[in-house]
Amino acid sequence: MSFTLSSYAQQSIHGNVVDSQSGEPLPGVTVMVKGMSIGTSTDIDGRFSITLPPPIEGKQLQVSYIGYVPQTITLKSTEELTIKMIEDSQNLDEVVVIGYGTQRKGDVTSSVASVKSENFVKGAVKDVGQLIQGKVAGLAITNPSGDPTGNTQIRLRGTSTIGGANTAPLILIDGIPGDFNTVAPEDVE
Fold first, then answer.
1. How many other β-carbons are positioned within 10 Å of the β-carbon of residue 127?
2. Which label site among 16, 63, 69, 156 has the fewest CB atoms less than 10 Å from its CB?
3. pLDDT tens digits, residue range 151-189?
4. Domains, the chain, ranges and CATH?
């Protein structure tokens, strides 16, 4: 009987989580009750609901989402909450996504190069490889056959490349393994 009464006395907290600048709902935001093992995630519309034992007043919700500043909200009543998440712009450059996972930027700085479209080789180019020819240290892009219609060959650090001199790099185009000949150079940013 006492179990039924205690579960009946519980109260629900409802709310939604939105981006502070655009007002767009944020799905998948973690909402936890501080000091308790009670929590949930927001749905596709940024909405959440948590059932808590009384008293509600004074309890704190911890709200966190990747790329946003974590927030702690002190509850005052059971009225619906609107939580505006603030983008954490300083953390956006701390993670580098690579072809097979993610790493901290500080761990891979020496092995990551970026070439912007304004730095591409100007003039007639046959494939994407020729756009970045001479723009990345240690990256050799050549046409070994001398045939103008032949494929370019890409080697990073020559014979010291992992796997030896005859190993070509893994090229992912929109997440799919491919090769530079399958993409028109004018389609690359």
1. 18
2. 69
3. 788 777 655 556 666 667 777 777 788 887 778 888 877
4. 2-90 (2.60.40.1120), 110-187 (no CATH)
